[in-house]
Amino acid sequence: MLTRKQFELLSFINQRLAEGGVSPSFEEMKDALGLRSKSGIHRLISGLQERGFIKRLPHRARALEVIRLPEQTAIPLPRAPRSSSGKSGFSPTVIRGDFKLAMPGASSNGGEVIQLPMLGRIAAGTPIEALRDSSAAVAMPAAMLGTGEHFSLEVAGDSMIDAGILDGDTVVIQKADIADNGTIVVALIDDSEVTLKRLRKRGDSIALEPANKAYETRIFGPDRVKVQGKLVGLLRRY
Questions:
Q1: What is the arithmetic mean of pLDDT over 28-43?
Q2: pLDDT confidence band for 181 (50 / 70 / 90)
Q3: Angle at 7 between CA 15 and CA 86, to 5 degrees
Q4: Does the annotation mark 87 as catalytic?
């Protein structure tokens, strides 16, 4: 599963390789995706490489190869139309995912079981975008939930293993837009990336801490991170 930006970048690289056999420069990628710096492109490329969609060719500048395309989208990667100047414009088809969509209220069965909406997968590692799947739900005993709205997510990655959260687990999230220091939260970064991390407030900055020494804490300005919910439960299938 790819984030919207990863999908856009993969589309752009694939398009440029198909048209001229040469991958675009990092500056061209940055401009095409509307990012503020090339560091974001480095992170996106690393994510695509880790997931096996692209690979870097050694000893060659600007050498990227598209290995495969995302099958789960069922949408062909777009070929951009050419303008009158002969240059191609980039207008990708995107995978939509947005935690700001109104969530359906959980319904109960006899007051004993509540069907929580499963909104998709969330990264406990390199951030990925959680994709809403309105057809999926997780049954939860009503007694295990407190007040407020809840939803569930499937965890992808191992950056929270020291907090007992493993790859493939299902986490139960209470919808919230604020959280106490040290709380494990669903955090929306730059309105595009969603991740599960421990929230730390450091002066005017916000730190998203992993629970795995193999990963680094990421620091952001307060306007770049929005809390979407707090971890309140975990389900694991053996």
A1: 85
A2: very high
A3: 25
A4: no
Q: How far apart are CA 64 and CA 11, in angstroms?
A: 13
Tell me: the pLDDT tens digits for 119-170? 777 876 655 455 455 557 777 777 777 788 888 888 888 899 999 988 888 8
Catalytic residue among 197, 201, 205, 230: 197
What six digits make up the tokens of 3? 């984030």
Is 197 part of the annotated catalytic residue set? Answer: yes
Q: Pick the catalytic residue from 5, 11, 159, 230.
A: 159
CB 106 within 8 A of CB 114: yes
Task: Write down the mean pLDDT value for the chain.
Answer: 75
| Nearest Cα residue to 228 out of 143, 160, 153 | 153
Measuring CA to CA, which residue among 59, 58, 30 is closest to residue 45?
Answer: 30
Rg (CA), the chain: 20
| Helix residue ranges per DSSP H, the chain | 4-20, 26-33, 38-50
Task: Point out which residues pair with 231 in neighbouring strands.
Answer: 173
CB contact at 8 A, 190 and 156:
no
CB atoms within 10 A of CB 196: 30
Residue 214 tokens read as 């193999």
Residue 191 corresponds to which tokens in the numbers above?
A: 């309105």
Return d(Cα 182, Cα 199) in angstroms, integer: 5
